[in-house]
């Protein structure tokens, strides 16, 4: 595995992968095992960096994110994969498929036959979230973190009706449950009625402040003046798509800004595949890995079958 930050002449690869998360590293391993020359480019600022453990990952339950990604990177050594932990500034891929694709960082230009975009989503926690609580006490995925807080008092916070629906996924773990949702109509929704039937509370409003106590407990202050003492907070709607490269590549997106892809992650640009949460923001980690693997297999086939009729 080449890990270099020095300036150099453009290098040519079969596939350039932008993103060093689960999808990108998993894809790199598959392509390396397929005999493809691969460059992986991006920073190590992953979406789950604030978490202390990874869950729902068979045979690696509870592994620390930094250990998981470190192992995945080291496994690329055997395949001769080039890894550049640098900020990507610009991508280009001719829409007519004439190629090649280019990846530009502040110190190098990489040239490849195909591009896999796997740069994930961006976490945007609300400004009231106390320091060092995101990914532990405050989180955005009930499947990834709720179990570790079983038996605690839960708050689920967010802007839309989906917030109330997500709260129902936490009921089995919560000693008590309160939902704070900004959408007034969501307070009267059927999901809200279900929360109440199960003993929870649904409030219209927002969180305006929060305090973390030495015990690890949090006090949330609502816009209506309520103080809520809780041990776990799920924030709905705290992620957003990274649009910079999707816009640069001019791939087709749907009305929500999510790229339109085939089942293997191929975009409207014949040289560009997209995987992981960059393709489907609701993926959990193991799904992102699987997405990267599937795209990698498709890329290998696309290169092998190029020009065949």
UniProtKB/TrEMBL annotation:
The keyword Repeat does not apply. Coiled coil: none annotated. Keywords: Flavoprotein, Membrane, Oxidoreductase, Transmembrane, Transmembrane helix. It comes from the Bacteria. The chain crosses the membrane at residues 12-31. Residues 13-280 form the FAD/NAD(P)-binding domain. It catalyses: [thioredoxin]-dithiol + NADP(+) = [thioredoxin]-disulfide + NADPH + H(+). This is Thioredoxin reductase. It comes from Virgisporangium aliadipatigenens.
């Amino acid at each position: 595995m080449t890990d270099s930050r020095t300036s150099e002449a453009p290098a040519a690869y079969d596939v350039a992968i932008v993103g060093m998360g689960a999808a990108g590293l998993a894809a790199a391993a598959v392509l390396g095992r397929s005999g493809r020359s691969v460059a992986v480019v991006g920073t190590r600022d992953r979406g789950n960096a604030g978490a202390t453990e990874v869950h729902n990952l068979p045979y690696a339950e509870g592994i620390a994110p930094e250990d998981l990604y470190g192992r995945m990177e080291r496994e690329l050594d055997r395949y001769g994969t080039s890894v550049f932990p640098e900020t990507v500034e610009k991508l280009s891929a001719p829409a007519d498929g004439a190629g090649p694709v280019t990846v530009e960082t502040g110190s190098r230009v990489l040239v490849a036959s195909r591009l896999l975009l796997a740069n994930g989503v961006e976490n945007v926690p609300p400004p009231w979230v106390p320091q060092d609580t995101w990914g532990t006490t405050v989180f955005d995925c009930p499947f990834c973190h709720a179990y570790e807080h079983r038996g605690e008092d839960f708050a689920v916070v967010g802007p839309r009706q989906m917030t109330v629906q997500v709260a129902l996924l936490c009921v089995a773990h919560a000693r008590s449950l309160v939902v704070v949702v900004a959408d007034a109509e969501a307070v009267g929704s059927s999901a809200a009625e279900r929360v109440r039937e199960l003993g929870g509370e649904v409030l219209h409003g927002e969180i305006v402040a929060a305090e973390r106590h030495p015990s690890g407990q949090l006090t949330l202050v609502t816009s209506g003046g309520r103080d809520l003492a809780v041990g776990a907070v799920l924030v709905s709607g705290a992620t957003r798509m990274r649009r910079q490269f999707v816009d640069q590549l001019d791939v087709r997106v749907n009305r929500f800004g999510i790229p339109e892809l085939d089942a293997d992650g191929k975009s409207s640009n014949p040289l560009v595949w997209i995987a992981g949460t960059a393709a489907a923001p609701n993926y959990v980690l193991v799904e992102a890995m699987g997405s990267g693997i599937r795209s990698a297999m498709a890329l290998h086939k696309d290169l092998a079958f190029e020009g065949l009729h």
